[in-house]
Amino acid sequence: MSKILLLSAGTRVESKNNKIAKITDDFLVNELKIDCSLYDNFYEGVPFLKDYNDKQPDYVIDVRNDLINSSKIILFSPVFNGGYVSHLKNILDWLSLSFDKYSYNELFKNKTVAVVSSVDGKGNNAKSSFILLKEQLKNYGLDVFDEFYLFNEENKVDDFDSNKKLSTSYHTFINSFINS
Q1: What's the rounded Cα separation, in Å, for the pair 29 and 9?
Q2: What tens digit of pLDDT does each residue of 18-58 get?
Q3: To the nearest 5 percent, what fractions of the chain are helix, strand and coil?
Q4: In the chain, what percentage of residues exceed pLDDT 70?
Q5: Which of 53, 98, 99, 115 is a Cys-bridge partner for 148, taking CB atoms 3.0 to 4.6 Å apart?
Q6: Domains of the chain in sequence order
């Protein structure tokens, strides 16, 4: 297994999406012995892409360099009004640009992506958000894992360490994705 890229679009440092991304990184690295790179904070220092000729920010170049060596991606996406956050699409748009010997969207080819979301409520909009995000990810040329994992008010990220059923369920999801 080559490297796995973890991209967390949490809206603040202490967000639940960032928390589960760190838990996932720890599980993959320490339990499954898989090399990972975790990136978050796409809302500071990553300007909105205005033109494909824009100079790529250093942060985007760092993510891009890890994406080159990754075979799988896990996205951690909050749900806002039945959709995903704009800074997630922005980082993906930056990563889709051509550079050096790579053509447009080439970095996404032959890579599989899974989506994990954490919401404060029941997550009634989470499925529609996943459907929107899934279609966008396909537009980039990514293979999208059919299922997504949802943490909500019944299955809280904050209860992860104390809820054996929740952690087992989530680890099963991650293992299914890894082995897909």
Answers
A1: 20
A2: 999 999 999 999 999 999 999 999 988 899 999 988 899 99
A3: 40, 20, 40
A4: 99
A5: 115
A6: 3-178 (3.40.50.360)
d(CA 3, CA 112): 12
Q: Which helix (H) or strand (E) holds 112?
A: strand 112-118
Q: Which residues of 46-63 are buried (b: 16+ CB within 10 A; e: fewer)?
A: beebeeeeeeeeebbeeb
**Which residue carries 């054996």 as its tokens?**
164
Chain centre distance of CA 105: 17
Please say if the pLDDT value at position 1 is more than 80. no
0.85 exceeded by pTM:
yes
The dihedral built from the CA positions of residue 92, 96, 100 and 102, taken in this order, carries a sign that is positive
Token reading at 31: 């339990």
